[in-house]
Structures
1.
Amino acid sequence: MIRSTLTAATVLFCLSAADVSAAGYRDESVEMTTVQALDIPAYMGLWYEIARYPNSFEENCVGVTAEYAQRDDGKIDVVNTCRKGALDGPVEQAEGVARPAGPGKLSVSFVPFLSWLPFLNGDYWVLHVSDGYEMAVVGNPAGSTGWVLARSPEISQEQLDTARQVFSENGYDLTALRMVPQPPE
């Protein structure tokens, strides 16, 4: 397996490119609602990316996962893993740090040593989490990103319908949501 870790310069470029060219997939006049009582310890662990709104930093990524681990200082280590081009393609990882930023809200930086610079932090708002923390819907106020995450590589049609409803209620354009190939269970 080929493995490469994104360098800080690459991540910086991706973040700046995302800010400049990111398409807004939501009507920003619609108020976003987040999970008011996000159980951070329950949210930790491995999540599979089931669907996403296209973004420059995940271009050509399949088999995407995100893994969260709480740190003693209250912050959260984040490791995003992508397979480039195919489920058996080369692995790329981006490592970051998140910090709580309000009810159901995290601020994430993939340039942790510069996380004090506000323009290098991304909004990561948990819009919905299912009972048992098996499925989550995440977005940001600008609507430039959005994800459906699950604890397994596949979800039911009912779960997908719930995720789509959450996005719709938060002003997202459902026609832009794309499914992400995952390896079968």
2.
Amino acid sequence: MKKFTFSLKICTYLLLCLIFLSFSAYGPTEEDAGYMQQKLTDHYDPESGPKNVRKYELNVTDKGFCRYKRFFSNGKVEYFSCNLTKFKEIDYLGNTLSGTLFVRTKGADVIVQTYNDKRGGDIDSMAAFMAIPLKNLEAEDLIDLSEKFQAMSLKLHQ
């Protein structure tokens, strides 16, 4: 009977450990990705980019991907994606009212895809940066974004 009780205690402790570990699966990359996505979405400027964009999607995933997709009123779709393990730096051209955030990579590591373009058809290419129009971005916000991009890049390399 003592052997059975001892085995039951061990199983209970292991089960509790698994439960606690499952709740700790939410790690720092999820926090950084959520923060960056929220900040980029809050400051996105639909008026600053091309005039015929009817919808956009902007995602930063916990796996380290930054994705930006623009849907134009004529049916054309532009898609930009980069893995933050290839992240180099961010630059901002503009002022606190309006500007463009350039997410730069170490090489031509940004995937650029164009669909339904009447002039060029479907095009796949690579670029060295991704440009995102932003507004009402203070210096502190820019510093926070830069630090989060750097931190997430470093965490993904581990």
3.
Amino acid sequence: MKEQIITRDVVANPKTKYGNAKASTRHFITQRLTGAINVLFILFLVFIVAKLAGADRADMVATIGNGWIGLPLALLLVIVTIHMRNGMRDTLEDYFAGRAYSTYMTLNTLFCVVIAVAGVAAILKLVFWG
């Protein structure tokens, strides 16, 4: 089977089957939704940073260990990593294709999962076990 070379003309032609329409729509909506949530959460984050400015470790642990602060902060971390993964996906799509794209996208996903899990675990430890 002959592999088609993907050029600007192929992508611009609506009759070609380039990409997955449902995945692209989901990616677009996820990127916009997580971006909007990040904008809303920025006020919360600024409040936390301002409150903790100049505080010692005990005050920081007590503040982040509060469930009303720590749980939304953990949710924010998850949403930020989803947004980060999608943004990096856009960059990887621009510069890589085929096997290299798949490899870098897998590494990107793994990195984002590690950041989210480590951060959420640290926050939940403070919330539930001080």
4.
Amino acid sequence: MAKLALFIPLLTACLMATVARAQHNPHWWGNRNTIVHLFEWKWSDIANECENFLAPQGYAGVQVSPVNENIISAGRPWWERYQPISYKLITRSGNELDFASMVRRCNDVGVRIYVDVLLNHMSGDFEGTAVGTGGSVAEPSKKSFPAVPYTAADFHPSCDITDWNDRFQVQQCELVGLKDLDQGNNWVRTQLIAFLDHLIQLGVAGFRVDAAKHMAASDLKFIYDNVRDLNTDHGFPNNARAFIFQEVIDHGHETVSREEYNQLGAVTEFRFSEEIGKAFRGHNTLKWLQSWGTAWGFLPSEQALTFVDNHDNQRDSGEVLNYKSPKQYKMATAFHLAYPYGISRVMSSFGFDDRDQAPPQDASENIISPQFDVEGACTNGWICEHRWRQIYNMVGFKNAVRGTGLSNWWDNGDNQVAFCRGSKGFIAFNNNNYDLNETLQTCLPAGTYCDVISGAKLNGACAGKSVTVDGNGYAHISIGANEFDGVLALHADAKL
């Protein structure tokens, strides 16, 4: 009996560890390995984009905006989507039928869907009765959300977060006034699990968990462990678990740390975003990026959800790069997709002049669909960085070099660097104010290759620069200081 008593907890621990590891699997199709955040897009537009652009260009998945009903706020700021009022699947992006159709269509072409889910809170205070995008009503000031239903008994007592080093305040008080759900409450847990289960039934591959830091890891573990397996009708294997990546802002000195969550699923590595921005803004030399990753204090690669910017920090001042600094942004994104670290997500934004700005909308406040020019770029208020040639071709680079390591790092002791990815890829960067002209080891087989940054291989020809690699793998690499792009990238699939 003593041996059996010892064995049972060990078996339970092993099973829980297996579940936790499974929740780090994004369930990518083929060699694809990049997620794009189509921020505030409509479900029908995402379905079209999966079929017409994302699958052909090798994207692995889409992070979508919150899917459940939210309050209607004056001017329709983007953040109203983060003020839920019920778990009905109806937002400005579409209704449940639209969402289900989108998930099916994207899965059918091998593009996975990850939903931004709001488990921490409901809407904040609203003058009088709040009305939702699905017609539900609530009185947030009284913590009354009858469409769920939730009452005041389902929330933590109201308090403000005034001390970010106080665990109680961070996890039980109200983040920017949002009514803080009690995830230890059985009724709340039941509602949240049912919500996630419903999304899984519809075919999603996983979740981005908003404000995870503001919920106790033990409560999240209970919720994750009790969510159903992925739906095999959508091409997932038996017993597959949802991919989970959690928003935990941790600069390395937080009382509530990312290490409390990284065994439950991946964690957003915000320091990656800040440090890569600092480097390509010229505030840190590129040569130091040779040790990029865990040596910089980042999470282990398979636990880190990495990005140059996200929908929040692209709106902040500071080191983080966004689409408004396009040359440096494309360089940072190319490094992000070329260096073998992290679970990569690229941002696809709409244009903004102020932090609260709504997505592109018509006079009736309906979100409008992106429109495209002859080169496929967006034209009507949508930025669509994922459609920039320099970015989607680097998604192809990342696919081509998947499974290879980094070798043959070269730098000039400053802001010119280059490296190989096995024998499959080579990339070089010039962030100096003078030209890069070097003969470098590319690690590629002899031949002529198309630089996928300046152009693309089409019908056996290159629309941009071409580079000839000799029998020993060497090639002359040139990137002018004043060139449109500060990157050159070659890979095996771009051989002419």
